[in-house]
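User: Let's play a game. I give you a shape written as C-alpha cells, and you guess the letters that built it. Ready? Here's round one.
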C-alpha cells in the first residue's frame, strides 16, 4: 500500500514537470531574419503556457527578439556568457548585461563551446554560479562524443560533467537549473538517439542528481533532450518519462518546424 502511494506521488510529481523547449539559433540569422523568425513563431506560441518556450538568438539579435517576445509567455535566452559581471574581457557578455535586456535563460557548456572554445567543467561551473547569482536560469549541456559513446563511456562522461558542472550548488537553487542531455554525435548530424537510448541516459542523469542533491531535486529538475530533434521524432522522444522537452538547433531555424516540435511537447 505504501509502495503504491509512493508510486502515485512519483507519477504526480513527474507530471508536474512542465516541458521546456528552447531554440538555439547558434551563429545564424541577421537582425531582419531574426525579427521574421521570432514574429512567425510568436503567432502560434505567444499564449502557450503548457510548455516553456525559449528562443536563444545570437547576441546581435537578443534585443530585437526580446522586444518581440514582450507581453507573450515566451522567454529569451542567450547562448553563452562570461562569469564576471564586468571588466577587461574583450568580446564577452556578462550576466548583468543579459538581465539588462530581459534574458531569463542562458545555455552553458554547449558541446560547441566545450570543443571550439575549450570550456572546461570548471569554467562551466563558474558560469552556472554566475548565471544563478544574476537570476538567470542556466541550461547546462552534457553529453558524450561519438568516440566516448563507442567506447561505452557515456555514463562516466555525463557523471563527471554533472558532478563538476554543478559542484557547490545549494539544493534550493537547483529548481532554477535545467539540464540538456545532448549526445555530441547526434548534434547537427541527423543521427538521433533512439527514444529508449535517450530515456536511459535521462534516467541516469536523474539518479545522479538524486545522489548529488536530493530525491526531491531529482524529481523536479527538467532534463531536455537535444540532438537532431525534428517534427517527425519529437513526439516519441518527449513521451519518454524522463524527457522534459528539448534543446533544438537546426529545426529551430524554421518557424513551422519549431512550432511543431513545441506542439509535440504538449
Ligand atoms: C544543439 O546544437 O543544441 C542541437 C541540438 O542541434 P541540432 O538540433 O541541430 O542537432
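Assistant: Ready! My guess for every position:
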Amino acid at each position: 500500500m505504501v509502495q503504491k502511494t509512493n508510486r502515485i506521488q512519483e507519477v504526480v510529481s513527474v507530471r508536474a514537470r512542465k516541458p521546456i523547449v528552447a531554440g538555439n539559433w547558434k551563429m545564424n540569422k541577421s537582425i531582419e531574419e531574426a525579427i521574421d523568425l521570432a514574429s512567425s513563431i510568436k503567432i502560434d506560441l505567444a499564449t502557450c503556457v503548457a510548455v516553456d518556450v525559449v528562443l536563444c538568438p545570437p547576441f546581435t539579435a537578443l534585443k530585437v527578439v526580446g522586444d518581440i517576445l514582450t507581453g507573450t509567455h515566451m522567454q529569451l535566452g542567450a547562448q553563452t556568457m562570461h562569469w564576471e559581471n564586468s571588466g577587461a574581457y574583450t568580446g564577452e557578455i556578462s550576466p548583468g548585461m543579459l538581465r539588462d535586456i530581459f534574458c531569463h535563460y542562458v545555455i552553458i557548456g554547449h558541446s560547441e563551446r566545450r570543443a571550439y572554445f575549450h570550456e572546461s567543467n570548471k569554467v562551466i561551473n563558474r558560469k552556472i554560479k554566475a548565471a544563478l547569482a544574476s537570476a538567470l536560469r542556466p541550461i547546462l549541456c552534457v553529453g558524450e562524443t561519438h568516440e566516448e559513446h563507442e567506447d561505452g563511456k557515456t555514463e562516466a562522461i555525463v557523471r563527471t560533467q554533472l558532478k563538476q558542472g554543478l559542484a557547490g550548488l545549494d539544493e534550493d537553487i537547483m529548481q532554477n537549473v535545467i539540464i540538456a542531455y545532448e549526445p555530441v554525435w547526434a548534434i547537427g548530424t541527423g543521427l538521433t538517439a533512439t527514444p529508449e537510448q535517450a530515456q536511459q541516459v535521462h534516467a541516469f542523469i536523474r539518479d545522479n542528481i538524486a545522489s548529488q542533491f536530493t530525491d526531491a531535486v531529482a524529481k523536479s529538475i527538467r532534463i531536455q533532450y537535444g540532438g537532431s530533434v525534428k517534427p517527425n521524432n519529437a513526439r516519441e522522444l518527449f513521451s519518454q518519462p524522463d524527457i522534459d522537452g528539448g534543446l533544438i538547433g537546426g529545426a529551430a531555424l524554421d518557424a513551422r518546424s519549431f512550432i511543431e516540435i513545441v506542439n509535440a511537447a504538449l
